[in-house]
Amino acid sequence: MAGLFATLRRPTNISSSNFQSSSVFASRLLYLLTVISVSLAVFAFVLQWRGGLPDPTTRWIFGDDPNEAGSKPVRLSSSSSSCADILGQSHTASFPYFRDWKFNFGSNLRPKISITTSTSAGLEQILPWMFYHKVIGVTNFFLFVEGKAASPNVSKVLKSIPGVRVIYRTKELEDVQAKSRIWNETWLAGFFYQPCNHELFVKQTLNMEMAIVMAREAGVDWIIHLDTDELMHPAGTSEYSLRRLLADIPEDVDMVIFPNYESSVERDDVKEPFSEVSMFKKNYDHLTKEMYFGNYKEATRGNPNYFLTYGNGKSAARVQDHLRPNGAHRWHNYMKSPKEIKLEEAAVLHYTYPKFSDLTSRRDRCGCKPTKEDVKRCFMLEFDRAAFIIASTLTEEEMLHWYREHVVWTDKTLIQKLIKKGILTRIYTPMAIVQGLKESGVFVSVIASAHRDIIQDESLSSAGNRNASRYPHITDTFPRKMGRILVEPQSTARKFVEFSKTDRQAIPPESPPGMDGIDLTHTKYLLKNSSS
């Protein structure tokens, strides 16, 4: 029996030994894995602390090789340093954008949306404007540039951005536009051969005509004309997407009207309107008549009109046969009356005189005399006329006082009242997008990348090529087919106009409805109720 029990106990001892051995092995393996994990974490922390592993959200600021540890930041030229300061990055990244990420959307995204503009602004204004619209779905930009925007340091940056086409205002361009059929038609004739705003209005219209051809060549579905002080506001879409908004438009609609809201600045020291201004005055089309006229006097604050400048919005047109511009605010069609709709929530945000310096900059672009008679020739809107006279005749201190009184909103009680009434509204999304783009370093990245390209181009170009033209790349951006499309025999254009039954006069910038023509008794009733 003892031998039997001895035989039965031996396997039990062996099993216990195996179990203890497995437990020891498992404990040592777990310990080893823990030590390795902690060591790797410490090693990674030390490398990043010493600069060996740069944060991928900040890689864009380093040299051409994103994997090169300890690369030095790209140095910007002195000519672009001011833009870099304004458009520079913050230490807090809102969006994880990578170096050289330029919103290069694929051609499969539909609908494709283009914006055309005529501008003389600098990068500090154009880049936030452009990339904001890229964020909400715009794929193509047709930029007709002159002045500062046409300078090499600015235009080189613009041309480096995917989807951007730059067209300089050269004699070649003017010769082609001089042969446009528009000059033989009547719908824009009332603005020909007049100075300042009228001249700009005609120039914008001719540029829009050329942009239509470029849009068709690029396979674009919608085209919008905007100034660089305007932002599209696709309210009413769950994604805050202009592409989503236009994709939902019925196919039989030719044009979409976006009523404009006007910025209401609260300080006289605004430097970057897109990222500093959040208060806007609503358009008449987005208010009830009772609300609009009942608060008209307080909302106007002694200015000539409810808005400082225009109030008839901007529009998007479906790119199709026979499309033509109808002034800077609308589109039309040579063969039919376009079917149009007006949106109830989406708008164009117009940043109107948001900076004190806008007074003098607008003055310097016009050579008219600062008299009441002469400014009527030069400007279409009352406030622009008054602002030109003020900027031309007063001292800087007097101008600032006038600016604070007529443009800046300082009465907090009135602001709260009009916000409660629905006249004023706060819109933060564009501000958040532009601030996020700036903080992530997108603007500086584009400038730095273009700067490197400029240095390479200069090193490869010969002296002869540099002196050949003021704008050496004009042939790359000028629409070669434009002459064939726009230049028509005058007789053909005349005959076409005679048979056109859909001719509509160009729509200029127009002020919102005023108190003129409103029934006096009804007006007094509304004003009485609004003050109670």
UniProtKB/TrEMBL annotation:
It is found in: Membrane. It comes from the Eukaryota. Its main location: membrane. Signal peptide: none annotated. Keywords: Glycosyltransferase, Membrane, Transferase, Transmembrane, Transmembrane helix. It is an enzyme of class 2 (transferase). InterPro entries: Glyco_transf_92, KOBITO1-like. Its EC number is 2.4.1.-. GO terms for molecular function: glycosyltransferase activity. GO terms for cellular component: membrane. GO terms for biological process: cellulose biosynthetic process; response to abscisic acid. Pfam families: Glyco_transf_92 (PF01697). The chain crosses the membrane at residues 29-49. PANTHER family: GLYCOSYLTRANSFERASE FAMILY 92 PROTEIN, GLYCOSYLTRANSFERASE-LIKE KOBITO 1. Belongs to the glycosyltransferase 92 family. This is Glycosyltransferase family 92 protein. It comes from Solanum pinnatisectum.
